[in-house]
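Readers of this paper often ask what the protein records in our data store actually look like. Such a record has a labelled line for the sequence and another for the backbone structure tokens. Nothing more is needed to write down the fold, since each code stands for a local backbone conformation. The remainder of this section carries one protein's record, kept here as part of the documentation.
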Amino acid sequence: MASIRKGLLQLVFSGSFMKRWNDKMRPMELVEVDKQAHKMIAAWLLFELNSQDLSPEDKAALGEDIVRGGIFDYLYRLVITDIKPPIFYQIKANPAHYEKLTTWVLNELQPRVQPLGKDFWDAMQTHFERQVRRDESLASRILDAAHLFASRWEFHLIRDLNQWDEEMDEIEDNFRTGLEAHLDLAGVRQLLEGPSTRLGRFAFMCGRLRFQKRWSQTPRIPETSVLGHMFIVACLAYFFSIAVGACPVRRQNNFYAGLFHDIPELLTRDIISPVKSSVQGIGDLIREYEGRELELRLFSILDRSVYTDLVDRLSYFLGIEVGSEFEATILQDGTARIVSWEQLQGRYNQDAFCPKDGHMLKICDHLAAFLEAYTALSNGITNAHLQQASWRIRNLYQNQSLTDDLHIGALLADFD
């Protein structure tokens, strides 16, 4: 039976500390969790575009490989934090050395990851065994292209500040060469060309969420961005999906619903929960505004007539049709329909219904906020906002459970 432990949650959150481009001049701190979020947004775009001719079964299998592969690679990166990318790529080029490093990484991850269950652990081991053998699947190529896109986008933030650095031209050439090797994948050319294309402009806009800091009026260590928060929620949603026995498509939908749940903040900024709840009707007004702005300023970039499937799927993740991303839904005859938790756990827990959690996603959103507050308090940053947020979330879930084996209050109690 899969279970969620404190150590796993803290491991996932630790990417908020892990700095990138640490040997270069930077206009802001760049951290691993932000880059991983941007990578998985690009991976989703490429997944949807390169799976249109697949059967539902094959598409579900590809989707599972991409989501799990993205999480596996992130966890791997968290362990090898002190190895600079050029050194890591040299190690990776030597199968014997890469195998030794991977064996050590898996040993480090095992105590925190194995409670998720044998299936997840076995899949992680298989994933890295294939990487050592250099097996190139469609999923691995999509993830590689998405990684190159997100890293190159980030690199362009610092490139002009480091014109004196002799490595800059070589880094740019490596990114471009790497992406050009994936031009046979639908969507890669548009990502490479950037904002001059609809797909590139959408992906570039999503990257801007790393500039928006959460809790902007509250000092914290570490500071977290909206983009990084979305990735943490996505990972938690996937882990919780495993723990409650969700079907593959439901697991994937929950991951991407978490990954995109705050994308309206591109348009509204981070409006804290007390503001949304303290004034009667303000939450509904904000949601109405978000929906209108999403259509005018975000979905219009993709253009429904050009990327119909992408817009429809993103709308489903965001709960546009049912009024909230935090409603449990299925798709019947192409229409989103609200269902109960019991129904989602029962008859609708099948790939054919394209199920997506709502209540569980909200729990993961709150847990990610709790991790932010708890970590800041643990690092000596004491203020009323952090203490109140921590208390409020503990109090809200102290008696709540999703299944007999997944009690939210007990999980939070581990952080005492």
